[in-house]
TrEMBL record:
Pfam families: PadR
Taxonomic source organism: Acetobacterium woodii (strain ATCC 29683 / DSM 1030 / JCM 2381 / KCTC 1655 / WB1)
SUPFAM superfamilies: Winged helix' DNA-binding domain
Record-annotated Transcription regulator PadR N-terminal domain positions: 77-150
Protein's UniProt name: Transcriptional regulator PadR family
Domain of life: Bacteria
InterPro entries, sorted: Metal_resp_DNA-bind_regulator, Tscrpt_reg_PadR_N, WH-like_DNA-bd_sf, WH_DNA-bd_sf
Length: 181
């Protein structure tokens, strides 16, 4: 679909230069009296990118699948708890902060994962009153959780490396097919 779009641009419009970036395509049009650049997001046919004007002023945020969020929940939580003990809402805020507001977890998603990690003996919970306010249930990582975190880190690094190589090959093939300079 993407290459079909570029072919349409090639035959319907005169352009000077097309640059393919990781998340968007920049097309530099050079027609008489018109010199404009057009930046188009690269998105799947499932509309993975959606407008969010509140944050980027007309930009785009990624809509991450529930499966990917669920798969990354354990290493996220264990990594956050490795820094220091935390309560549920603080973990949700930390994930949001680390992802620059792109990953927004709900309590309904977080607490079942925390309970599962407790059952597996990776974390433990305790009640504490912070700053003289109400009691909160804090979570702390245990030794088994530190071991699991190291396993998770190695697994995610393996996945990241394999995907990066695959995507790099795809981008090179795409560039060679289009023969754009």
């Amino acid at each position: 679909m993407f290459s079909l779009f570029l072919c349409a641009c090639r035959f319907m419009l005169s352009y000077h230069k097309i640059q393919i970036f990781e998340n968007f395509v920049l097309i530099n049009f050079s027609r008489p009296k018109i010199k404009k650049n057009l930046a188009l997001p690269i998105c799947s046919r499932y509309n993975a990118l959606k407008p969010n004007r509140s944050r980027y002023n007309g930009g785009y945020l990624m809509n991450v699948s529930k499966d990917l969020i669920a798969a990354s929940a354990t290493p996220f939580i264990l990594s956050i708890l490795k820094e220091n003990d935390n309560y549920g809402y603080a973990i949700i805020k930390k994930v949001k902060e680390l992802s620059h507001d792109e990953l927004v977890w709900s309590e309904g998603m977080l607490y079942p994962v925390l309970h599962r990690l407790e059952e597996k003996n990776f974390i433990e919970s305790y009640w504490n009153t912070s700053d003289g306010s109400r009691k909160r249930k804090y979570y702390r990582i245990k030794e088994a959780g530190l071991v699991e975190l190291e396993v998770q880190i190695k697994q995610w690094q393996l996945i990241h490396t394999a995907l990066s190589k695959t995507w790099h090959q795809i981008i090179n093939i795409r560039r060679n097919r289009l023969c754009l300079t």
